[in-house]
Design goal:
The complex is a heterotrimer of chains A (378), B (170) and C (154).
Chain A (H helix, E strand, L loop, with lengths): L1 H7 L6 E5 L11 E7 L2 E8 L7 H4 L8 H6 L6 H16 L5 H30 L3 H21 L19 H14 L2 H10 L2 H7 L7 H7 L4 H5 L6 H4 L25 H22 L21 E9 L2 E9 L7 E5 L1 H7 L1 H4 L5 H11 L3 H5 L1
Antiparallel strand pairs in A: 1-2, 2-3, 4-5, 5-6
Chain B lengths: L2 H11 L4 E4 L8 E3 L4 H10 L5 E10 L4 E10 L4 E10 L5 E3 L8 H12 L2 E3 L27 E2 L2 E2 L15
Parallel strand pairs in B: 2-5, 6-7
Antiparallel strand pairs in B: 1-2, 3-4, 4-5, 8-9
Chain C lengths: L2 H32 L21 E3 L9 H5 L5 E7 L17 E9 L8 H5 L5 E3 L14 E3 L6
Antiparallel strand pairs in C: 1-4, 2-3, 3-5
Classes of the chains: A mainly alpha (378), B alpha/beta (170), C alpha+beta (154).
């Protein structure tokens, strides 16, 4: 026909889309340069470095205690877990013993922080897909956790609470009561989250079979945390290489099973986070009644001097395994601190995983990676 | 399997590339020659079942006039982390073979090491800066690095010397 | 997709969406009876807990110019200058009885650099430097943020 003959002479080209540093769906200042053929993605190159604050250089000029506020500001949505990772690494180098009371307080607060971080991930993932209500519910519940943290440490988001050897301040019986009330309240909320978003058929259609990462890809890219557990591998540092008092509590490690689509798709990773919130609540309930008496900080000198040596220690943060490689030359100032951040490796998978998907599926995949640019760029 | 066992097996397999096991506490490292790092890492992944990279970066030993590149590899089967270190002379333009063909995680981690120290990686598919802007001069994490005064007309330090509102600390 | 599968998909979407709307309806009814969670901010304010870390304040009557706070600060925002007292000058003490052997000439804090970490107030031996609960202190010009505590006239 006349029209199809014209169609054969039409020249098509690839479109270059800039998902720029200012964008509501990129969870921070991230730039992705997408080359598409119509609606299908041909290549997606992330560009990072907009939030680079040279933390590793700063930590070579200030003393050991003053590195802690810098470490807080890396993953600013899970700040207690970051500080705990740094404190555990330095305590391994120094050989300091942490008192039992401080260990109990640290684990309770880490798990509460994990719940708060996953609530944020759940709320903003819904917002990326287009659902506005779960965001409000998640933030209403998260505010209560931030109120507890303000009573404990004095700040709402960046606490500087996990000091080397223990914690900054002790907790009072009123705070214990506040935590118990929160646990009783939150137990009823997770089923509400599942009814609002997780099993909603539109959400399932948008996220199942999208952004599939199998176990071999996770191993090659060095992915850990919910990404690896969503791919079906049961690996959690709190169970397999326990630190602090995690070997004394009883909890399960949720793993993706490919219920709604393929194993390792975005819905699996999202569901692993939702189930982890229930497990964290279990841990807090087991520990909150039995906090032993004692000091809240071990015997540490005012001016900390760390003996010569190197250590590499990893802890389980809400976004993956955070690693600290610390080299000390015996003085009051660190020689080298290298932070291995999980979100840095999470973003590097974007090109390979989103090839062949549509642009809207790319947004759903980026949301399921749960990135925080403060940790990517440090 | 401990790091000591692994060191002995590797030394038997690659006598030319493996130099020694260090005595640092609490985590020792295995010193590897720069020319053989690709073979050693390939064999660690294929025969010794070290499935993933846990960490990769650079160190500036200014007193000994050396750079070092460190690799931490982790095995899920043996549950052990092995640390490898490659020492290089502290000059501009030094290079090390890239392991990005073995582990895809090394792609971005090696780009970051190049950005911060200026160590090039031969055979890397995309060797350019990742965190600093593309046309930044200098390599920030070196111990003798001085921040430039201006970058494209924007002043870089917070306050300049002689500025009246600055106190300059204590 | 057959017509039967299409009908089942639409029914699924309808049922799960209505379940989600039931949650929202219950929250809506709870707000009508028990009140909303949001507070109307400038008219009502939240009561901050004890120990909240807000704006810094230094009571210079008690300051012995030991410079522990300036050394502990990670961002170097405290500027202290102190001289030795001239021979024969009188030595006064703080409220707690500690002798002030140095003459404090300058104590400025640049609060736009302060990161509210609490390391300085933990290091102060006489507890003259502490965090207040103040958080509403915005200014129109950036150089108004260097607070001079020796000549405090708020």
């Amino acid at each position: 026909m006349h029209l199809s003959h014209q169609a054969d002479n039409l020249r098509t080209d690839e479109l270059l889309i800039n998902m720029g540093p200012q964008h509501p769906s990129t969870h921070g200042v991230l730039r992705i340069i997408i080359t598409t053929d119509g609606e299908i993605v041909k290549a997606a190159h992330p560009e990072i470095g907009y939030l680079h604050r040279c933390k590793e250089k700063h930590s070579e000029n200030v003393d050991w205690m003053a590195v802690a506020p810098f470490v807080d500001r890396m993953d600013y949505l899970a700040s207690m877990n970051n500080s705990m990772g740094y404190a555990i690494a330095v305590e391994k180098l120094m050989g300091v013993e942490v008192p039992r009371r401080a260990e109990y307080i640290r684990v309770i607060i880490s798990e509460l922080q994990r719940i708060a971080s996953h609530q944020m991930a759940f709320g903003t993932y819904g917002l990326d897909i287009g659902a506005f209500t779960p965001f409000m519910h998640a933030f209403r519940d998260r505010e209560k956790i931030l109120d507890i943290f303000e009573a404990i440490s004095g700040a709402r988001l960046l606490y500087n609470y996990m000091w080397i050897g223990g914690t900054y301040r002790d907790i009072t019986p009123e705070i214990v009561k506040q935590i118990k009330e929160y646990c009783a309240y939150f137990a009823g909320q997770i089923s509400q989250y599942n009814e609002l978003l997780s099993y909603n058929k539109i959400f399932v259609e948008r996220t199942a079979n999208v952004g599939i990462m199998d176990r071999e890809l996770c191993w090659s890219y060095g992915l850990t945390g919910p990404m690896l557990r969503g791919a079906g591998m049961k690996w959690d540092l709190r169970k397999d290489e326990p630190y602090s008092i995690y070997s004394e509590v009883d909890f399960d490690v949720p793993v993706g099973k490919g219920e709604m689509g393929t194993l390792g798709d975005s819905w699996d990773r999202y569901m692993v986070r939702m189930r982890e919130m229930e497990e964290s609540l279990k841990i807090v309930n087991q520990l909150i009644d039995g906090i032993p008496d004692g000091p809240h900080r071990g015997r540490v000198a005012k001016k900390i001097r760390v003996p010569k040596g190197e250590v590499f220690s990893r802890t389980e943060c809400p976004r993956g395994e955070l690693g600290f490689y610390i080299i000390s030359d015996g003085s009051e100032i660190p020689y080298r601190i290298k932070v291995k951040s999980p979100c840095f490796l999470n973003i590097s998978t974007l090109d390979e995983v989103t090839r062949g998907l549509m642009v809207a599926d790319l947004v759903a995949t980026v949301g399921s990676l749960d990135i925080v640019l403060g940790e990517v760029d440090r | 399997m401990t790091v000591q066992d692994l060191y002995e097996k590797l030394k038997a397999k690659f006598p030319a590339h493996i130099v020694e096991l260090s005595e640092t506490k609490p985590d020792p490292y295995i010193k590897v020659e720069a020319a053989g790092i690709l073979e050693v890492v390939q064999s660690l992944r294929d025969e010794f079942e070290f499935q993933t990279v846990a960490n990769l970066g650079g160190i500036d030993y200014i007193e000994e006039k050396q750079f070092a590149v460190f690799y931490h590899l982790f095995s899920y089967t043996h549950k052990v982390v092995v640390a490898l270190k490659v020492f290089l002379p502290r000059e501009d333009g030094v290079s090390v073979p890239s392991v990005a063909s073995v582990y895809k995680a090394a792609n971005w981690l090696e780009r970051e090491t190049y950005d911060m120290y200026g160590i090039r990686f031969e055979g890397h598919p995309d060797m350019r800066r990742i965190l600093c802007p593309e046309d930044w001069e200098g390599y920030p994490l070196r111990k003798d690095y001085k921040t430039p005064d201006y970058y494209r007309g924007i002043p870089v330090p917070l306050y300049f010397e002689g500025d009246s509102s600055a106190g300059g600390g204590h | 997709m057959t017509f039967g599968e299409y009908v089942a998909l639409v029914k699924d979407i309808g049922v799960t969406t209505l379940k989600g709307m039931a949650v929202t309806w219950r929250v809506f009814m709870k707000v009508q009876t028990k009140g909303a969670v949001t507070i109307q901010y400038p008219e009502t304010r939240d009561r901050l807990p004890m120990g909240s870390r807000g704006l810094l304040f230094n009571d210079v009557e008690d300051c012995i110019a030991c410079k522990q706070c300036a050394t502990a600060c990670p961002v170097d925002c405290i500027y202290i200058e102190a001289d030795k007292k001239a021979a024969g000058a009188e030595i006064d003490s703080t409220k707690g009885g500690v002798k002030k052997t140095l003459d404090l000439k300058r104590f400025d804090i640049d609060v736009s650099l302060c990161c509210y970490c609490g390391l300085c107030s933990a290091a102060c031996p006489t507890e003259c430097l502490y965090h207040t609960k103040e958080y509403e202190y915005s200014k129109f010009e950036r150089d108004r943020f260097t607070f001079d505590f020796l000549n405090w006239h708020h």
